[in-house]
UniProtKB/TrEMBL annotation:
Keywords: Cell membrane, Membrane, Transmembrane, Transmembrane helix, Transport. It is found in: Cell membrane. It comes from Marinibactrum halimedae. One of its GO terms (cellular component) is plasma membrane. This is MFS transporter.
Length: 407
């Protein structure tokens, strides 16, 4: 069974392999950017669904993480990740084609949108640890720089997808979904080029269940990794879960704006991601990664609280932009810390546990936010989330191993 891959050095230069890898990630991120806007638009404007149903659809995009992320981590340690990612890109292109056909035939319903969300969520969940485990394989200079390059490319490509999807109400679904399907096809082709440039290595492995348990023991027995995963789990439930449900509702119901405006707000978030990723690539980072992650937690809590205060409409874009900056720094530094603390033999499984903590708790947060929105005001929920985040930083942050750990 496979536990990793090594580059066939005679096949091509490392720089060329990195270019194919970044291209595959970029086209995939573009498709994700389109998807981020299209699902709320289809649910809230095209089908006119309520807050609780919309929250359930968003949760169905994330629930498969509970089942498939850990399996993806085992696959990343044992199989050729590029081939699996190629198949995932093809599956996503097929699902988007089905939604396009249903929309054109006026057959799209809340049930079909739920099924689509569940299947897309499964494919995306499997792909996440596979992609992350490949980063050190194609790093040219250092893993930290490779992670920052990956983040920069993904955020740039995703912003283009968000921008195009933001004009969907005037340009129409056909060409936007068509471009999304084409991007996934190109991404799959780039992964196929990488799959032919790798040579699998073999090692003895236990069953899938035992392999997952090994990964869990690896994380729980390491104080820094354990605290990082717990912190990421909190972010998934409170911040990501709230973001995917409450921000669209805040814009459409509290401020009375359209889904197209949500596209611009989401674009501001991604632009914040891009600017901070580019800045981190151009400067030397001196602070420990764990300390930076904790500071970003406090910043995110403050922004959530401000969004809950129902400030003037013009503050939405700068607040979400600032949130995007904080998320970019926190995400990149969290991944750098993770990669620096984990052994190669269990990298895929540890990465999958890290991502499970984030994306596995997010659907619970999304469902909770959707149902709370039926009872409480959107502003009250956002303010409460901000207070919880700041309280966690004060109580837990400064006393944790993350604050003092060295990369």
């Amino acid at each position: 069974m496979f536990v990793g891959t090594r580059i066939d050095s005679g096949a091509t230069r490392p720089e060329s392999l990195l270019l194919f890898f970044l291209s595959a990630l970029g086209f995939g991120a573009f498709a994700t950017g389109v998807h981020i806007i299209m699902v709320p638009w289809l649910a809230l404007e095209h089908l006119q669904l309520g807050a609780s149903t919309f929250g359930l659809i968003q949760a169905l995009l994330l629930f498969p993480n509970l089942a498939f992320l850990l399996l993806g981590g085992v696959v990343a340690d044992r199989r050729n990740a590029a081939k699996w990612l190629m198949a995932s890109s093809a599956g996503l292109a097929l699902l988007h084609s089905v939604v396009l056909c249903l929309t054109l035939l006026h057959l799209l319903s809340s049930w079909s949108l739920m099924g689509y969300a569940l299947l897309v969520g499964g494919l995306v969940a499997m792909a996440q640890p596979l992609r992350e485990s490949m980063v050190p394989t194609f790093a040219v200079s250092s893993v930290q720089r490779a992670i920052l390059q990956v983040s920069f490319v993904q955020y740039c490509a995703q912003s283009v997808g968000v921008l195009l999807a933001g004009v969907s109400t005037t340009a129409g679904l056909v060409w936007i979904l068509g471009v999304q399907i084409m991007a996934l096809s190109i991404s799959g082709w780039c992964y196929s080029r990488l799959s032919h440039r790798t040579i699998p290595t073999r090692a003895n492995e236990a069953s899938v269940a035992e392999a997952i348990r090994h990964g869990v023991r690896e994380v729980w027995g390491h104080s820094t990794l354990r605290q990082l995963v717990l912190l990421v789990g909190f972010n998934g439930f409170v911040n990501l879960g709230a973001y995917v449900v409450l921000i669209p509702l805040l814009i459409t119901q509290v401020y009375g704006l359209s889904a197209a405006y949500y596209g611009w707000v989401q674009l501001a978030f991604v632009v914040g991601n891009i600017m901070m990723s580019g800045l981190m690539l151009s400067v030397r980072i001196r602070w420990p990664s764990g300390r930076i992650v904790l500071i970003c937690l406090a910043v995110s809590g403050g922004i959530l609280g401000c969004l809950g205060l129902k400030l003037p409409q013009w503050t939405l874009v700068p607040l979400v932009f600032s949130w995007g900056c904080a998320v970019a720094v926190s995400s990149s530094m969290g991944r750098v810390l993770l990669q620096s603390q984990v052994e190669k033999a269990v990298r895929g499984r540890v990465v999958s546990l890290y991502q499970l903590a984030l994306f596995g708790t997010a659907p619970l947060g999304a469902v909770s936010a959707g149902f709370l929105a039926e009872i409480l005001s959107i502003n009250t929920i956002l303010l409460g989330a901000g207070v919880m985040t700041m309280a966690l930083f004060v109580i837990f942050g400064l006393r944790s191993a993350l604050w003092s750990c060295v990369d």
